[in-house]
Amino acid sequence: MKFAKTILILSIVCWFGISVSASENSENKVKAAPVLVLYPLGDKCEFRTVNYLEQTLNTYVKCVEEATDESWIINDKYNVKSHGEQLCEQVKQDDNLKHGNFSIVSLSLGGMMARYIIEYCPLDMPIRNVVTLGAPLNGISAIASLPRDSWVGYYIDLIVDKLMSFKFTERLFQPSDYWKEPDDYDHYVETSRFLAEANNEVDFDVKKKTAWTSINKALFIKFADDSVILPKESAWWGEYDEDMTELDRHDSYVYQEDLVGIKTLEDSHKAQFVQWPGDHMAFNYTQINDWVLPVLRS
Fold it and tell me: Residue 253 above 80 pLDDT?
């Protein structure tokens, strides 16, 4: 009889444990918002990663490679605002995304599309969570493989600084709309076609800041040896100073003045700044499991 009671008690405990576990798993699945994955313009979606997110989170995942048809891209290849408008329309036509309250995962230069959706695409509810991997969030100031601390890179970037003010570069050079001149701030603000406005450095719009501070969780990932995003601190909202020294976000103008709301996010413990080892976009599924999935489930 005593043995039977023990078996009964153990059965109840096991049943209760399984029920709690199932309840927790179900709760996680319910809480996982739909996910919009944004790749750089011209890149192809890695559907193995997309399918992994979809199956693991048990939620709707949409991947966007390009925001428009091919002929339109040729006419205005790298214009962030034009692509952003088209992407916003795609979001509004998607039944799973059109009301907002979805999460965004952006890879590399796809971070600019993420910024457009957050700041410029009006939705009923704010974006739920944001994850950026190696994104030039505060712009790019040097050509990959030609850093300004080399004499060749220095002179080439000086030329590029001046060329970026001309609209034709949008058809030739992807970072043209978020190129930042560290040694001529006034010229950058005057000629910037996207970044200065998105940063609220000109025509301050409190709605852009509110869009960021309304986010539930943000994860900004920087690659320790990034040779593509220059400065790599841009992935954490940092920048170069006028002497081409990398500035941490805490020393950058956009962060200090809290123009976009990133300081508010960090102060309220809603933002994580994580560094992964390796070069640009060198990551694995263990890192996705440890860092990205918990944010997307929140």
Answer: yes
Residue for token digits 């091919």?
Answer: 70
Rounded to 5°, the CA angle 275-277-282 comes to 105
Neighbours of 254 (CB within 10 A): 23
Looking only at the bridges linking them, the beta strands covering 239-240 and 246-247 are: antiparallel
Cis peptide before 231 (omega within 30 of 0): yes
Query: Residue 3's CB: how many other CB atoms inside 10 A?
Result: 7
User: What is the amino acid identity at position 16?
Assistant: F
Residues 50 and 62: their CA atoms lie apart, in Å, by: 8
Query: 215 near 121, Cβ under 8 Å?
Result: no
Residue of higher predicted confidence among 167 and 271: 271
Task: Kindly report, residue by residue over 199-249, the tens digit of the pLDDT.
Answer: 999 999 999 999 999 999 999 999 999 998 999 999 999 999 988 889 999
Rounded to whole angstroms, the Cα distance separating 130 from 103 reads 6
DSSP 9-40: HHHHHHHHHHHHHHHHHHHHHHH---EEEEPP
Beta carbons within 10 angstroms of residue 25's beta carbon: 11
pLDDT of 196 higher than 90: yes
Helix or strand holding residue 91 (H, E): helix 80-92
- Residue 145 near residue 227 (C-beta atoms within 8 A): yes
List CB contacts of 183: < 8 A, sequence separation 6 or more.
161, 242, 244
Q: How far apart are CA 148 and CA 143, in angstroms?
A: 8
Q: Read off the pLDDT band of 139 (50, 70, 90).
A: very high
The 10 Å CB-count burial string (b at 16+, else e) for 51-80 is ebbbebbebbbbbbebbbeeeebeeebbbb
